[in-house]
Structure formats: structure tokens, C-alpha cells
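This entry is passed on directly below:
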Amino acid sequence: MRDGGAAMDRRVVVGLLLMAVAWALSSSLLFPSPPWDNVEELFWARSFELGYYKHPPLPSWIMGVLVRIAGPQPWLTYAAGLACGAVALGIVWAWSREVAGPRRAALALVLGTLVTYHVQRAVVFNHNTVQLWSIAGYWWMLWRVLARPHARWREWAALGAFAGLALLTKYSAVVQLAVGFAFIAWEGLWREARVWRGVALAAAVAGLLVAPHLLWVLGHDGESAAYAMASVQPGAHAVHGRIALLKMVRLQVVRLAPMLAVMAWAWWARPRLTGSPVESAGPGTAFDRRFLSWAAFGPTAAVVVVAAVFGVRIVPAWLTTFFLPVALWAVLCWPGLEAERWSPRRWRVLVGVVVAAHLAAALGQGLFDGAVGRRFGHASRTNLPADDVAVALQALWTERTGGQPLRLLVGDTWFAGAVALKAGPQVDLLVDGEVRDSPWLAPGTLARDGAMVLILDTPGFESQGVKLPALLASAQCSGRLRLPWTGGRAPRQVDLRWGIVLPAGVAAPACVR
């Protein structure tokens, strides 16, 4: 492998771009319906708010810009999520090059692509995925300002900007921020005036970025903060909580498995790479290794300890951003990953295997979770026959309302939202019947335009909105619709209850119970 700087940079950019395109094409072409979070962001993007009832606003702002350019297309969400993962890996590449040199940086990049969260699950455009790049930037800048005694003020400001943007994406960034402060305290760096001055500047920059959202939170009775707190409430049974924690840890190992497999292979093959004594200790300093150990393992250790002691609920996907520094730690500390000593043949084999693995995984995920899996009995949120549901509901609405235009669906974010996207850009969504959760709708939209209320009863995918049953009961006419979902030996159906709330001033004799 050649070390040329500009040429290597071009190869990295092209490689990340091609990887993102392959995964985006697979999802766009093979998923009949988007995942829950992708649907949610396409609707949140319909209005620019300083906050939303569940989360801070940055991902919805990003999607809002894209939607205004290209329309509310599901492929946009796949491309945007994968772009966030690719940018994060690009940042890790730049950081690794400074710490470990170009060859180990290239190996760190290859290993980083094998972490499920960074690519495969990045097709899910949500706040965890969008936070990848800002957390990668946070760790890079924190290392820079702490490892360099004469760090420039703009680097401290960049640290604050990345931290602020991470908080504007999801409040879980406080875990990485806390680990960073803990490292500063552990190393005794808090005694240095330069560190305190730099931290003050970074905090000021982060505060300026986050301040408008914090004012929104205060003005909305702490909605998003309350949602975050409710999400981590301890369960009723401590034993069940510990079992769930063990399952969560096991799932993290599974999602790191491709990278761990390469590390295991490198360790096993290590004797073949040590034909001569190592002439130096390799790149990186003792400080770098300590820092990377904290960055790579500190956040996971922190949440596992808190969950174990306090019984806090941890959703596996919340750890999406926790493993970004692991690949860099590995190329500095793991035996067998001394990339500068690898032969060209070993590089070709590894890169070829990784490229083949990405292509196979992208195609396999698209087929299994898409229409092909549906044929063989696998029901998933990404293979919902939303097109068929939209056509059937439009026919019901037209028949029962005398041809009035359908403008609004009322239901849960995923099911009703996916159907609304297939019904056309003129159809909007009232999430769970909650006006506060749908700020893109003008006041009185439901009374003025009428709506179809949808409650999905298919086991495993049931609608949960507490207001939906009452809205359905108030509808002028209602019924049940069943459509095929999966094939196979045990076919499943889309089983939904529907109701029509007539538009104001519209009398529809055909709308009878």
C-alpha cells in the first residue's frame, strides 16, 4: 500500500462514497417501505422547529433541507444516514492519520466500516446515526487539544462546536462529554490553566449553539427532556432488568463481530508477521493509548455500570456512537495490526474480503428485510405493503366521501406515516392524534379537512397511540381492512381498523357504519 497523502485521501473519499452508494441503492431498491425512524424524520422535516417532542432538532433540520430539494423520498433518508456514517469514518481516518500514520489509519478505516452501526444500520436515519459525525469530531478535537500543549484557540472552539452539535442531535452526547471530563480529571490536566481556559471557550461555543433549543425546552414544559428521562426509567423487576442488560451487551458484541473477527485473525496470524524484531514501539504515545482506551471503552463501561447499579433501561441502538474510537485503539494496541509491516498481498486479501462482505451484506439485508423476505413469511417494518394499503384506503375514502380529496391520516408514526408517504405528497399525518406532536399541521386541520383514522392490529406491529381508539369511535363511519402481507407457511396480514372523520361541511350519505 502506498502512503501518498493526496492520492490516499482521494482513495479514502472514493471508497467511502462507493460504500455508501452500494448500501443506499440496496435499501432504496429493495425496501418497499422505510424503517420507523426514517418515516418519522420525513414528517418532522415538514417544519423547522427549535425542538421536537422527543428529541433536539438537528437531524430534522438536515432532512428538512434535503426534502425541500428533492421531496419526501425514502431514498433520501438512506443516503443521508449513510452519509453521516461515511463522514464519521472520514473524521476517524483523519484523526488516525495524525495519531498512527497513513498505513495504520487506513487499517483503522477498514476496521471501522465493519462496525454494524457505522454502515449497515446507518440506513436508519435517526438521531443516533446523525450523531456519529459530531461525536467523531468531538473525540478528535479533544485528543488534539489535550495532546498538544500549544493547541490553538480555534481547535478548542471546534471542540465546543462538535460538542454543541452532538447535543443538538441527541442528549445522549452527555455520556461522551462526561467521559471526556473524567479523563481530564484522571490525568490531572484540570490543574493546567490552558486546559481550563480552553474548556471555558469550548463550553461557551457549545452553549451558544444549544441555547435556542434550551429556551424551546423551557417554553414547552421540558417535553423532549421529559421524553429522554422517561426512556431510561428503571423496570419494575430487577432480575428482568439484569437479563435485558446482558442481552444488550451480547448484542453489542454481535454488532462488533465483523471487526472482532479481523482482529482475531490478525492476532492468530501474528507470528507470520514477525519475521524480524520490532525496531520501535510503533506510532502513538503512552498518552495516546490512555486517551484512546478511555474514548473507546469509557462510554460503554459507564452506561453498563449505571444500568447495573440503578436498573436504568438501555436500548441497544443508544450505543451507536460509542465504538467510533475502537478501530483506532486497535491499530495502536492490538497485536498483529502493525499495518506498516503488512505485505501488499495481505492488504489485497483484507480489502477484497471487506468489499465482498459489504456487497453481500447490503444485498442480503435488502432482500431479507425487503420484498423477497416477505414472500417467505418474514414480516418487517421495511417490507410493509404500504402501496397496497394506500390504494385500498384511497378507494374507501373516495367511495364513502363522494370523491372528497384525502388530505390527512391519523395514526402511529410508522404505519400511518408509511401509508401517507405512498398516498402522495398531498396527504399529511397527525401523529397518534396528538396535535403537539405534529407541529407541521395548521390549527384545526383535522376539523377542516377530515381524516382517516388508522389503527394497526397485526401482532408485533400494533399501533400504540392512546388517543386513537377515541378518535376512531368518533368517526362517522368505520370498518376493518385485511390485506396480504407475507407468504410462506404461516402467512401474515395487514389487519387494520379504519374510520373516516368527514371534512367540515361535508355530508356523505355513503359514510354509514
Confidence is low (pLDDT under 50) at residues 273-280. The CA atoms of residues 23 and 362 lie 5 Å apart. The longest helix spans residues 238-268. The beta strands are 408-411, 428-431, 451-456, 477-484, 493-501.
